[in-house]
Amino acid sequence: MGKFKVELKKVVDDSYDILIGHNLKRTLVEDISNGLLGKIKKFAIITDTNVLDIYAQPIYDLLVEKNYKADIFIVQAGEKSKTRETKSKIEDAMLEKGYRRDCAVIAIGGGVVSDLAGFLAGTYGRGVPFITYATTLLAAADASIGGKTAVDTPLATNLIGLFNQPKKVYIDLEAWKTLPDRQMYSGMAETIKHACMASKELFDFLQKNMEKIYSNDITACEYIANYNCEIKYKVVMKDERESGLREVLNLGHTFGRAIETVSDYRLLHGEAVAIGLVAQAYLAKEKGYMTESDVKKVIALLKKANLPTEIPEYIDREKLIEKLYTDKKVRDGKLRFVLEKGIGDVVCFGENLYATPISEEEIRNIINNYFE
Amino acid sequence: MGKFKVELKKVVDDSYDILIGHNLKRTLVEDISNGLLGKIKKFAIITDTNVLDIYAQPIYDLLVEKNYKADIFIVQAGEKSKTRETKSKIEDAMLEKGYRRDCAVIAIGGGVVSDLAGFLAGTYGRGVPFITYATTLLAAADASIGGKTAVDTPLATNLIGLFNQPKKVYIDLEAWKTLPDRQMYSGMAETIKHACMASKELFDFLQKNMEKIYSNDITACEYIANYNCEIKYKVVMKDERESGLREVLNLGHTFGRAIETVSDYRLLHGEAVAIGLVAQAYLAKEKGYMTESDVKKVIALLKKANLPTEIPEYIDREKLIEKLYTDKKVRDGKLRFVLEKGIGDVVCFGENLYATPISEEEIRNIINNYFE
Ligand SMILES: NC(=O)c1ccc[n+]([C@@H]2O[C@H](COP(=O)([O-])OP(=O)(O)OC[C@H]3O[C@@H](n4cnc5c(N)ncnc54)[C@H](O)[C@@H]3O)[C@@H](O)[C@H]2O)c1
Ligand SMILES: NC(=O)c1ccc[n+]([C@@H]2O[C@H](COP(=O)([O-])OP(=O)(O)OC[C@H]3O[C@@H](n4cnc5c(N)ncnc54)[C@H](O)[C@@H]3O)[C@@H](O)[C@H]2O)c1
Which of A232, B109, B125, B145 is in Cβ range 3.0-4.6 Å of A145 for a Cys bridge? Predict the structure, then answer.
């Protein structure tokens, strides 16, 4: 018998910058010229059909102008493109065009594009660098921070993927102007979630400035983009691999994901989260963590953001309960919810312990007696 | 404009043990009981059709005996299984059987299985732990150390994958008994490569003990298994991500890979490497790094190991040259070869500089005047 110890202990620095601003296309290309990605000269731009003309093509043109080699790889817009098959197709197209280990990936679009492209970059040539140019509020608030990348499979969403940190993230606030309203609202749900779980100040700001944000007021948009980063960043920094603290980000999501699935994706993710935020607020009130007036404030803010706060009629409530209770997180017949405490805080039972056990009966009560 | 620095600097410890011994099936399961993988209780065993009955089924039985949940996922034996499609199929089968993030992967087989399973483990649920039970000499000598995992695509071998370190590697020397002779010889080529590049002592040992190894003498097999680990380990430890030093492991491989491809995989990888070792020795002699007698010793050892030392007749030599010179490593019309210096050392031009430029003319000379 022989035994070997392979010693592989080392310091890894995956730190990166997030830049928030108006129209950052030139800045991105300048950063590359200034050595952001070292000596890399070949760029695979990954984008979707909606984002192509408005953001990807202009960045491509700027890169080519500077004599970089670049190609655009386009996926059909929408969640359905976030698959292993799309990933393989892009890989094959990149190989065909001679991309090897000496390239970098630039993801231009929303969360679908950055999840897919970030995952692809992580396995291409066993990992090439990537940067993200985020064009949706949802990507700005959520997908662009934390290093989670993934694709969906027929049996699970976001289960096949990697933790893979970008080299830099660009949050283009100007891109929110071309974003369809419903997508903007959906992204706002995650912003409201951040406010509910971590910042009364942000909550108050949103109450006062929703119209400004929705009419693309520069200062207001910058304010929420910064705040979103700060809140998610603080959580992610402390818990890069989801050991516990990240759990708080699930505020509104346990219920939200269930209703999203039962709606068969008629609800956008943020819309489902909005209803989930209402549900957890009702639960928090039942448990004594929120006052009636706090709950009303949350609902009013979601309404102001043009987000749903009621369970749509087409949802089969029994199916919803069933979906919740077949969830992997059910233990001893109890679901575990993150609950809000007042406005801007969550219920916490000790270090990294955020889960309140909720029985089927309690949920049933909320669904049947609190929602219309 | 706002700017955020996401700070993600941390110490990562990917160290792991390699255990070399005779029949380590029980040891593996005991290690798991003793907490090698923490509290994990669900194991996805990945294996191939040849290895299933002899090694995977017995390990499965031992796990089930200890009340672990386990399932065997079987791929068709052979390089053709190392694809994204096979990976997807296993992922779907695992999802179907309820595997989520709380499982571990056990790869049982040769390099094909460990490359595929190690990659799969790295992206399943954004990464679950895996261990490798290596049943071929090639896996023992090469594939099990270094953390490289990958699959092949129609346009490139081993290009889509990850650096992903196992939690432990088991090298079962008894498994070499059931290994087909040709596979054993093929694995020996990598062992001889290690000797040529790094150890006169190992070289001498192989000269004296080849018959013993091939008749499964315990001490001799243990000796080479240990030596292989030591040599590859030393290189890998210093250069986990292939910045330079790992280059030395390419001894015999530049020529080897080209002839492997041109043979349309009639040559096994190790057989191709054997011919590549001869080619580099001829080049080294031409350049004055090896004596005629050293070259003869290398050839004699390869012959003793039942490995080819001549270019097979069916190989189109012009195609071979063409293949070499379309290689990605060609710079200014010159290929870059790692060359042996005497026996047990390589030519080195400074820290991490191992590449000797070789012109097409020089290769042509070797192919036409040195080989039969
Ligand atoms: N990685 C993470 O941590 C994380 C976090 C949250 C969500 N996500 C993922 O993000 C995805 C949802 O993100 P999303 O809402 O950005 O989805 P998305 O990328 O599909 O974008 C939404 C829609 O808006 C279009 N679009 C994007 N930018 C535009 C612009 N500036 N102008 C006009 N149209 C534009 C897109 O083409 C698409 O049709 C989901 O797949 C989700 O799983 C990931
Ligand atoms: N990751 C790395 O660093 C690395 C290094 C070298 C090679 N590789 C990869 O390893 C692969 C080659 O490895 P390999 O030669 O082990 O290939 P392999 O896994 O295909 O095994 C060779 C053959 O032997 C059979 N077999 C395996 N163990 C057996 C046993 N004990 N008894 C009877 N039959 C057995 C297999 O079914 C297969 O038919 C290639 O895909 C190569 O790319 C990877």
Answer: A232
